[in-house]
Amino acid sequence: MNAKWLLKAVLLFIGLVCAAASSASGRSESVRVALIKGVDEVRIDGSGLLAADGNGNPVPLELPCTIRRNSDKLLVSGGRSFRRLTVSAPEKIRINGKNYRGIFDFYPSDKGVLVVNELPIEEYLVGLINCEISSLWPIEAIKSQAVIARSYAIYQKDARRNALYHLESSVMDQVYDGVDIEDSRAARGVRETEGEVLVASGAVIQAFYHSSCGGHTEAAHNVWGADVPYLQGVECRYCLSAPSINWEAVLPLKKIESQLRASGYQLGAIADIKAGKPNRSGRLQDVTIAHSRGELLISGVNFRKAVGYAVIKSTNMTIRIRGDEAVFSGLGNGHGVGLCQWGAKQRAADGFNYREILSSYYPGVKVEKLKY
């Protein structure tokens, strides 16, 4: 490698990293997001990309290139291996066909390649809006989403400050798909609430939210066992006109058996599934499963988790057996805790501003502006 090129690359890479850090500190805090976890191969491309290994030494890349895990190292196209790779770009980098901005760390993980994206929170939020809701919704609903997503990100950053990343880019935290679905309305919602978060007792709250509650949001202690003052559950009739508010799922009993066993429950052939009493929000507290070895009592939350969140959309449901199948009929979508997104949309359409919307779902919580 030419010594002059090496020096130039090192200086340019350091400049990009410092510029990104300056941008983050000047406009907002940065956040580290796990974009990809446990895949066999990652393909990257872009213009002006610069890479460095775990020791800061520049790594020339012939683009496009692939990165794979090889034991405890990363194997890059051409046969070179590294324990860690950091990539930066002046504008965007394309990873597995999607465009992102910021700085990217690639690590070998137990199940494949881990890709972590570091970028300013305000930029992260613009790319998040159209993943969580639609920027075609009323602007006050978009601003509500921006504030709760920012609050959630700040809370998770503090909770995971010693981890490789603060957030996952999936429903495990908040869905984030990069810059390709950013638009001016999403950017406006973030800009007009810049730095604003929800605060209770002097601390940023864990601002949970979900798609639709079906008439009443859920108390956090019914889902996670934590009694949180601002997450006690409130009445919400605004989401009842949402599309797909009513849902039905039909599953063979044998499939439910296999899914419960895969989740660690010991049971024989299922003969019946009985819904327990609903709680104050209308959701099932528990489910009793009669099987060939006896009965299994399982909480409604854990039953939904075992059978599948995408199948059992809410624990606000009824259950009936039809031959060798179970028929689940329910209302709403999600765990039900915190803000109801479809409810927020309708409230905004009815003239509520974003602060009024937030106060209705998180009683006693204040909107405050962070000092970045």
Write up this protein.
With 372 residues, this protein is an alpha+beta fold. The protein folds into three domains: 3-120, no CATH class; 122-240 and 336-369, no CATH class; 246-331, no CATH class. It contains nine helices and 23 strands. The longest helix is centred in the first third of the chain and has 25 residues, at 3-27. Residues 1-27 have low confidence and may be disordered.
Distance between the termini: 41 Å
Largest sheet composition: 6 strands, mixed
Radius of gyration: 23 Å
Strand order in the sheet with the most strands: 3-7-10-11-1-12
User: How much strand?
Assistant: 25-35%
State the helical fraction: 25-40%
Overall mean pLDDT stands at 91
Number of continuous helical runs: 9
Instruction: Please give the domain count.
Output: 3
* Number of E-type strands: 23
State the shape: globular
Q: What structural class do helix, strand and pairing data support?
A: alpha+beta
Segments where pLDDT lies below 50 for 5+ residues?
A: 1-27
Summarize it.
28% of the residues lie in helices and 31% in strands. The protein contains nine helices and 23 strands.
What's the structural blueprint in terms of helices and strands?
Layout: H1 3-27, E1 30-39, E2 41-46, E3 50-53, E4 65-70, E5 73-76, E6 80-82, E7 85-88, E8 93-95, E9 98-100, E10 103-109, E11 112-120, H2 121-132, H3 139-159, E12 167-168, H4 184-191, E13 196-200, E14 203-204, E15 209-210, H5 220-224, E16 246-252, H6 253-262, E17 270-275, E18 286-291, E19 294-299, H7 300-307, E20 317-322, E21 325-331, E22 339-340, H8 341-349, H9 354-361, E23 366-369
Helix pairs in contact: 2-3, 2-4, 3-4, 3-8, 3-9
